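Let's do one together. I've listed all components of the complex below, 243 residues spread over two lines.
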Amino acid sequence: MPKKLCRWFVANSLLPILAPVIFLCIVEWYRNDAFPFGEIFMELLWGGFYVFSALALIFSLIEDYHIFKMAGIGSLQGAFLMLLVILTLYIFYLIHTEDALYIQNHSFQFILIWLLSAVSATSIKYKILKYKEGVKIK
Amino acid sequence: MKFDFVNLVAIISAIITVVIAFLMTRDVISERKKVKKISVPKEGGNEENRYKKILKATYWLEHERERNCGEHHSDENVYLNRAEVMREKTPFFSYVNEVWQTQKN
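Okay, and this is what the predicted structure of the assembly comes out as:
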């Protein structure tokens, strides 16, 4: 189960950010013999890509929505996830409307909100995987 | 630090994150303790017990004539053939026979 949980987390949170970064770095390497991984990574990150990662983690739980109740996930937790989606979308709105200084000053706060989405989604996924292992569903 | 809505939400998020992480860690640790208690190692394992039972059963069959002091079949091959057929009929029996022959040699 830890492997499944790690695989799910990497596929939904890290790969949506790393895949475009590595692709752009390879393109830059062919063009200019440079591999600016750090610069492109930070540019995409503060452009709002980490918002997609948080949303991907939450929306990937829709696949197992039908076993939420059986896995012990109540409607309150579902409502909390929806609240996190709204919060994440609000952050995306702030990134695209506010100035760069505001975003720079609040970058740590945005990371904390992403962390909350990641941890909440991971805890719910853990309960789902625990239920599936208990009834031997694959 | 200017106390606006985003800062307030970030503080609340940090608290909730710590609480959720703590609860999940506690759950994982308790599950691992349960699994450790349940998994008791069996003596010899299932396969070895099965092998011993089958070996015992076929040994009993082979020495039936000796135990009955020759009253049933005069030819002891009848009993030996029965044991051989029993062993050859299923893969596990033939495995037992192979192991037994190796041990005898």
